[in-house]
Amino acid sequence: MITLSQAPAHLPEGRRIYAIGDIHGCDVQLGNLHELIAEDLAQRPVEAPLLLHIGDYVDRGADTAGVLQRLLTETPIPGLPVVNLVGNHDETMLHALCGDRAAATDWLFAGGAPALQSYGIDPDSPRESWPDQVPPEHLDFLRELTLTHRDGGYFFVHGGVRPGVPLEQQAREDLLRMRQPFLYSEMSFGAVVVHGHTPVRDPVVRHNRIAIDTGAVFGGKMTCLVLEGETLGFLTTDPVGEPVSIAHR
Fold first, then answer.
1. CATH number, position 48
2. How confident is the model at residue 238 (pLDDT cuts 50, 70, 90)?
């Protein structure tokens, strides 16, 4: 049973959001976390649930191909709406596979080799041969990812925001890759920002932001933040996909 505590913002009555942190090719954990969401929804039905993935589906982990295929073909509950945000790794992979040679170099440096290998592609093979070996629907998935999502008192984005800039005026580069000065800022951002991108051992809950990338690909947990009304809780799985308890800081 999920443990709920006071949240720094609120959602409208009847709304519940399940927000999953960075995935990075960890397909087993993602599948098991989806099952935990399905179980929670069955035990605690709600009028308007939403599943949101915070981005970075690809790279570093062993099964980028499996993660993208899962997200294309499965939802935890039939009919459960899903919002898939874009992460910086997702954008770099797409650019690399669309012929940007600089992006391809960046992609390999940032963990793209395991992603290629998940498709049976040798990272040392000619770069122009890579796109033909990735299913077109996977590239379409990456193209169609959403940059941000606003719901109630929350703003969901992969990287972060630049303090002092209105949310509607934020630069794409900051939304995808921001760390400092965002992480140490005590400013109000106009909404509580729910983000991934910067790995933390346990979720971080502050008055102005919530961090949910708990380093699944580095042997940590994969985390789902559960928001409803003025409360929050967490569902998590460990590196082999088993449910674990979690605290935030």
1. 3.60.21.10
2. confident
C-alpha 175, offset from chain centre? 13
As a three-state string, the secondary structure of 140-157 is HHHHCCECEEEECCEEEE
Residue-number span of the structural domain to which 21 is assigned: 12-87+135-244
**Pick from 161, 228, 238, 229: which is nearest to 19 by CA?**
228
Q: What is the pTM of this model?
A: 0.95
**By C-alpha distance, which of 29, 25, 15 is closest to 223?**
29
Helix (H) or strand (E) holding 224: strand 222-228
* Cα–Cα distance measured from residue 173 to residue 160, given in angstroms and rounded to the nearest whole number: 10
What's the pLDDT at 53? Answer: 98
In total, the chain counts a number of residues equal to 249
